[in-house]
Amino acid sequence: MHFALSQDPDLIILDDPISSFDSNKKYAIVNRLFSSKSKRDSFYGKTVLMLTHDLQPIIDFIKVNKPTGASVSAYYLQNKSGVISEQEISDSDIKSFPKLLAEDSRNQDLNIVHRVASLRKLLEHTPTDDDAPTFAYNMLSCLLHGKPEPESVNGTKLTSDETKSGAELIKQYITDFDYGDYSTKVFTKDNLLRSFNEEKNSYVRLQVFRVLIEVLNLRTKITDDPLLKYIDEQFHVENDYMFSLDLMKFDIVPDFVIPKCLEYLKKGHLIS
């Protein structure tokens, strides 16, 4: 940073400067690079092109308007067959994952496989003590795995009351849902193949492919483990969102954090 500033350049290019760090360090680095409190010793007010694979600084700059509050634009770059295209990322393009899943689940213009998969993810993201979401989740899972009848996680058939309860919740998002019709008319080999061939969105095509290999029992024939892992990760809720250590049992806060908090309280004469 100091070398770049010493050259007084018209353009500064940062090539993925934060991807190898955890979220706290990422923000600290970006904050220091563009600090408005150290304008002479930072890139604040300079023309900077930062390339990154990481969404976090995009969220910070575009959604939260931090750390600088200065003029920032973000673009999504895509390489297709050697042709680079760019698409601007606006505030409205960045959504909370549950909100995005809810919107896609209800959107009748989207591929039905994607809608079903999105609703299942949404139910994973919003756990509840009510039984209906559990029944709905099991029904959607069975549908995505090509099972002719809905089952519980232990393989027992859902009762008519359980099926009715789950279906009522699903219909709040997918109004024409009927497990029997979807199983025999939508999640079939021919319909899924047609859906895969006609779908233009790569993410949705990947979801349809994941259902296809389940319905047709093709998973064991795919020897590319990294590919399967990638497909599975796109199809399920990421573990980082779903799981956490017991915060009452494990002290996950780094040692320096609380002393720093105490230090600031003492400086403000709030504690002695």
Written description of the protein model:
Helix 2 links the parallel strand 1 and strand 2. The model has no long low-confidence stretch (mean pLDDT 87). The protein has helices at residues 2-6, 23-33, 56-63, 97-106, 112-125, 132-144, 160-170, 179-186, 189-198, 202-215, 225-235, 239-242, 257-267, and strands at 12-15, 48-51, 74-80, 83-89. The chain has two domains: 2-93, no CATH class; 97-241, no CATH class. The protein is mainly α and 272 residues long. The two termini are 39 Å apart.
The structural domain count equals 2
Strand order of the largest sheet: 1-2
N/C terminus separation: 39 Å
- Tell me the radius of gyration: 24 Å
Mean residue pLDDT: 87
**DSSP strand (E) fraction?**
5-15%
Helix content: 40-55%
Tell me the structural class: mainly alpha
Short description:
The protein is mainly alpha-helical and 272 residues long. Helix content is 48%, strand content 8%. It has 13 helices and four strands.
